[in-house]
Amino acid sequence: MIVAHRGASREAPDNTIPAFQLAWQQGADAIEVDVHLTTDGHIVCTHDRIGPATLADLRAQHAERYADPFKGTTIPTLAEVFSTIPDQKRIYIEIKCGVEIVAPLLEEIRKSGLKSNQVVLISFKQEVLQTLKARAPQYKVYWLCGFKKQKTGEVAPSLETVLSTLNAIKADGLDANAAMPESFIAPLIKQGYEWHVWTVNDVEQAKRMKTLGVQSITTDVPGHKSRHLAAAAGGETHGRRQASGMERR
Questions:
Q1: Tens digits of per-residue pLDDT, 91-123?
Q2: Are strands 148-149 and 155-156 parallel, antiparallel or unpaired?
Q3: Quick one: pLDDT at residue 62?
Q4: Domain annotation covers residue 122
């Protein structure tokens, strides 16, 4: 699966309706969106921290943020993003705040009418995922993990830490950056966990990860480069797109 990172974020402002609509036009299997909860109870889509702000505050701040052809584009609510999702497509919702968002988020998903298999919940925050999985086990939950090489040459976190964390969360899978050691893949899958990767924008790297068995690749470029990937990887039937190269989530 090709997941458009904050939409087609190389070609349109990230986490905006134009970026998500463009991702669907380019054939993405899913979109990834960052969410926060405003002080007046709205779930908004933006990567950066929002602080104590209302929806009106945030929209005022975004009013003149973009130039043509995106002039007038503003910060969307999650409900507005839900309305763009075609039948059978998916959304990966990255929770950037704390457990206070859980109840309103689950209610927003319920109101959307999306099927449970169209919604994936992801976060670096273990407590948030654990709470979500306990309250709504019908949705898949992936733990986001950024692997880093230590001065000793070892990569952290260790495989043992990853597996114990996934077990504690009751997660369905791991959504990791490309620095995860390949030696972790087989044990992860053997334990019954899915493996997903972010944020890949290089075709050759994406092709290799597909060969290793990755189940989705999150990318900033779900269009032209992803068609390249489909051809290079043997012509997937949907023209599923991808690429690679680590970047911040």
A1: 999 999 999 999 999 999 999 999 999 999 999
A2: antiparallel
A3: 85
A4: yes
Residue 78 belongs to domain spanning: 2-232
**Would you give the DSSP letter of residue 137?**
T
- Model confidence at 224, pLDDT cuts 50, 70, 90, reads low
Residue 242 lies inside a defined structural domain of this protein: no
> What is the percent of the chain with per-residue pLDDT over 70, rounded to a whole number?
90
The enclosing domain of 157 has a CATH number of: 3.20.20.190
Number of structural domains the chain divides into: 1
pLDDT at 64: 83
In angstroms, rounded to a whole number, what is the distance separating the alpha carbons of residues 51 and 54? 9
Q: What angle do CA 101, 107, 112 make, to 5 degrees?
A: 120
Kindly tell me if the per-residue pLDDT of 206 is higher than 50. yes
Q: Within its chain, how far is the Cα of 169 from the centroid?
A: 18
Q: Is residue 142 part of a domain?
A: yes
Q: What is the DSSP letter of 77?
A: B
Question: Is pLDDT of 242 > 50?
Answer: no
Strands (DSSP E) contained in 69-189 are 90-95, 119-123, 140-145, 148-149, 155-156, 173-177
Region of 102 (left: φ > 0; alpha: ψ -120 to 50; beta: rest) is alpha
123 domain-assigned: yes
pLDDT for 200 beyond 80: yes
User: Which residues, including other chains, have CB under 8 Å from residue 129's CB and lie 6 or more apart?
Assistant: 95, 121, 122, 123, 141, 143, 169, 171
Cα–Cα distances (Å) from 150 to 20, 51, 67, 154, 163, in that order, read 36, 32, 42, 5, 19
